[in-house]
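Sample entry copied in:
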Amino acid sequence: MVMTVSATANVNAQPNYFRVGTVVPEIALPDTVGSVQRLSNLLGKVVLIDFWASWCGPCRKSNPALVKIYDEFQSRDFEIYGVSLDQSAIAWKHAINADKIKWVQVNDDGNQNKEGINKVGINKEGIANWQIRYIPTSFLLDKEGKIVAFNPTVKQIRSYLKKHLK
């Protein structure tokens, strides 16, 4: 007997646990030189959290537009917190250089034990509790760390920044 199941789902649907107005959980991961960068250190700025990977074609395709937005608004209290899911540090760092990314970049390669300690001894508050189902995925946060948009378009990001940053 063969069963066929069909279902439709909005792959861009916002996760139930992250709604507009929700304060996001902490992320504290190592950057390209191994220093832990905490998302909470960016409170007081508008932040785009960008989950991506070097091997993700749509992620890489979106980077040039993000570079332009970052260059335009970075001096006006806007920051991008890039979270790579790469398991290869070499590929991740190469993509950062090739795409001319200048914003905060951290990596969650998934290599940690039950206590949250990764193989180099860093206690990571990674992305497991974010339950990212696909990439690219992004969240635009206000200066208080609350979600204002899930997977915003470049046009939506630019519009929000023009309205809320001087």
Q: What stands out?
A: The beta strands are 28-30, 36-38, 46-52, 78-84, 104-107, 137-141, 147-150.
